[in-house]
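Chapter summary example: a protein plus iron/sulfur cluster.
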Amino acid sequence: MIETYAIRRPEAQESPIARQIREDLGIDVARCLECGKCTGGCSYAAGFDYTPRKIIQLVKLGEFDKLLSLDALWTCLSCQLCVDRCPSGINIPRIMDYLRARAHRANSNITHKNIEKFYEIMLSDIKNRGRISETIMMIKYNLAIKNLFANASFGKKLFLKGKLKFFSPRTHNIKTIQPLFRRLSEKDGQA
Amino acid sequence: MNVAFYPGCSHHGLAQEYDHTSRLICSHLAVNLTEVEDWNCCGATAAHSLDHDLSLALNVRNLAQVKRGGHDSVVTPCSGCFSRLKTAAHEIRHDPDRLAEISRKLECPLPENVEVRHLLQLIVEEYSLDRIRALVKKPLCGLKAAAYYGCLLTRPAAVTRFDDPEQPRSMDNLLQALGAEPVTWSYKAECCGGGFNASEPVIALELGQAILDSAKNAGAEAIIAACPLCQMNLDGRQGEMTPPFGGKYDIPVVYFTQLMGLAFGYAWRELRFKKLIVNPRKLLEKYCLL
Ligand code: SF4
Ligand code: SF4
């Protein structure tokens, strides 16, 4: 005879971070079936410290500190593959964005500082010019990570093809862009 | 047909040949492009990675600029920009309340019902394969090409609403209409890691190499790209990848617009093939396409 047992209802003991994710993003991790399709398809699960399926489990378990220090937050490629694979419609990269933003604001234990730095440089470029200048961004990044020769052979190839430009057009009406940065990021800081 | 054009930041520098050939193909197909007035960067991975609302705000501004220019439809050749613009358009449609604050900050109403399309999508949706076939002057006979879609062109399906995210076919069909032979391969919709090209090249190289291997094993002589980030990674980083059985990779990574141009009878120089890092000259000569 097949034994019957009471199903543990995740929603009855929703963790604080699971609740925040549900309220702020409208994503209910209680719907995760633990099927592992997200991990199976993930572009870089093999390089993650916790696979996507396990990350959802950490959310359910309320392992907030662990979540903020995940290396996978920084090596996730935002490729959206797991979104289409998940039978429960759980948007994992959106959860990654949310946790990453909080790790960034909390200045917590971030393992891939270089990736964070790269994003910061890119955003400051957009804030100041409205658009990115790839060449200037690469130089700033190399200075920031204190490795002037990072990407040197790649850069040389681009240079020889006339693809590195020191001057590139910007957004003229920059006044309409800067407020978006200031106020919205303040709001996110309290999230 | 009139449509707004969002070129994206890489079109000033790293993807000049894509920008040029995108405009060329559009004019050939009588698609009248008007560049979005004073557009801003879509924020790429950086914005949504650190501040999701900022990413939305930047793209709501872009969509508002599209409207301001009198358009209801915008097209972009970059899969990354496409994904960010389309996500914003999607959120405006499905969750306008959440974006109310953004519209207040921009001091303009939310730009509703702006249609966002990738250039490949616009072409396959507006032009039947028969019409494309009729325009071909120099069929790309014999050329074995791997149509590469990458991740963001078709995913997530609920947002992009374009092609099949697991087994896309649109570019394969287009290549076939141009006379080429699209190969069957399993990495056409995998991520190439191009977003980490500069910040974490180890990942970009690992994922990129898997794509080159898969294309080669399927017998492809060229990979056809529809995104400047993918192209730059697969083409520009190829020299740094080491094939598992020795030797060097030497597989041209060409934009689909360049191949369309070639089939429509444009010259080598006009299509800016020389800007590519792996030179496709030998390959094209082999099939008498130059
Ligand atoms: S979005 Fe991130 S977690 Fe999802 S499949 Fe891609 S790399 Fe993996
Ligand atoms: S694919 Fe969805 S349901 Fe399955 S384990 Fe991943 S998050 Fe859970």
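Key point: Confidence is low (pLDDT under 50) at residues 187-191 of chain A.
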